[in-house]
Amino acid sequence: MNRYENIQKYIFKPPKYSNFWAPFIYWISDTFYLHRKHKIAEVVVSAGGEELLEKIKNNNSLLITPNHSDHADPHVLTHLNRSYNIPIHYMAARETFEVYKGFNGKVMQRIGVFSIDRDGADIKALKEAMNIVHEGKFPLVMFPEGEIYHLNEKLTPLNEGAATIMLKTAKKLKKDDRNKGCYIIPTAMKYRYIDDIAATFVPAMDRLEKHIKLDSSLDLDIVDRIYNFGEAILTIKEKELLNMSFEGSVAERLEAFRDHLICEQEQKYLKKIDENRKHPNRIRKVKGKIQSIILETDPSEHQKLNECHNDLNRLYAAMQLYSYPGQYVTEKSTPNRIAETILKFEEDVLGEYKIKGRRKAEVTFCEPIDIFEYVDNEGNSPKTAVGDITEKMEAAIKRVLA
């Protein structure tokens, strides 16, 4: 999971799609990122591609909502842009533009990428998204998981923003009496290694264990070493942030630890604990509050700013903990899950991102969700519509990932 330092005034970055530049940028994405950095040797559309192309050709309002398990995800979709000559647009977290700023940010805008501040009410981004899908000229992609959790075969709970955007679009289409469809396309993206990567596991674990001065457990199999290392890191973080350790299994400790970190920040900054919402949504809400305080604070108030930054670090730790479900490898000890977990350790502990071998990406465009089924003739929808649509999206993607 990437760590972004984005404590600066947010400036919305609109899409500036260029028919001239897009093909060249797609080629760069394919050549230098998809194939070399992410080692994707093959991209296959397993199902739904022809139906999606037909809906795009007819200028329907389309929102494509993939799971987000890998840094290669946008490059896989950009590969499809290039292969099928489809000018897909993308909603990207503001942090992406703050990392790839300057020239690189302008390049992203030229293929239809625009920013959104996930921690605040980004009206400009939401209006841009609605305008894109309403017009129907470009399909729009948004990743409703919000973060990259490196869980290739599991789906974390989806945000409800996708359903909200499309219900509002459907209402506008009804009002305009536009004779076109309005659909969400749940999309499942899976990766598997083509190469035999088992030989990379032991050296990778050796490096990780050495980094935290943990005795190399050569008498343990690789799965036991992964859990031994994970438990050691968990203990280190518990002592570092709380000066204590939770009891129970690794999964129970992970749950208790992140809940403690979130609750303390909610109580401090929001004056209430929101136990009814999922952890990522709670983290984003309190994170946005802390960031707004930082932007409003005079730079000379070092103590207050340091305290805010320390609290953001605690929330970042909570989000990291959320990406480790606790039983992911023991449920199914496949080379793909083992490699995925080791890769996540390397990224979080060593700050490295090194794919273990060549991979194949499989993209499945699930059955479209017709948003008009959730609105009446005036475009109004029941209160449960957002939740019902989001649950349907989750179910469709989970069926493919299982």
Structure description:
The chain is an alpha/beta fold. The protein contains 15 helices and eight strands. Strands 1, 2, 3, 4, 5, 6, 7 and 8 form an eight-stranded mixed β-sheet that branches. The longest helix has 21 residues. The two termini are 23 Å apart. The mean pLDDT is 92.
Please state the overall shape, judged from the principal axes of the Cα atoms.
Answer: globular
Q: Assign the CATH topology of the largest domain.
A: Glycerol-3-phosphate (1)-acyltransferase
Q: What's the rounded overall pLDDT mean?
A: 92
Tell me how many strands there are: 8
Count of spatially separate domains: 2
Q: Which sheet architecture does the biggest sheet show?
A: 8 strands, mixed
Order of helices and strands: HEHEHEHHEHEHEHHHHHHHEEH
- Termini gap: 23 Å
What's the alpha carbon Rg, rounded to whole Å?
22 Å
Give helix % range: 40-55%
Given as residue ranges, the uncertain stretches (5+ residues, pLDDT < 50) are: none
Alpha-beta classification: alpha/beta
Number of helical segments with 4 or more residues: 15
Q: Which architecture of the largest domain would the CATH scheme give at its second level?
A: 3-Layer(aba) Sandwich
Please name the fourth-level CATH homologous superfamily of the largest domain. Answer: Glycerol-3-phosphate (1)-acyltransferase
Query: What share of residues are in beta strands?
Result: 5-15%
The CATH class of the largest domain, by name, is Alpha Beta
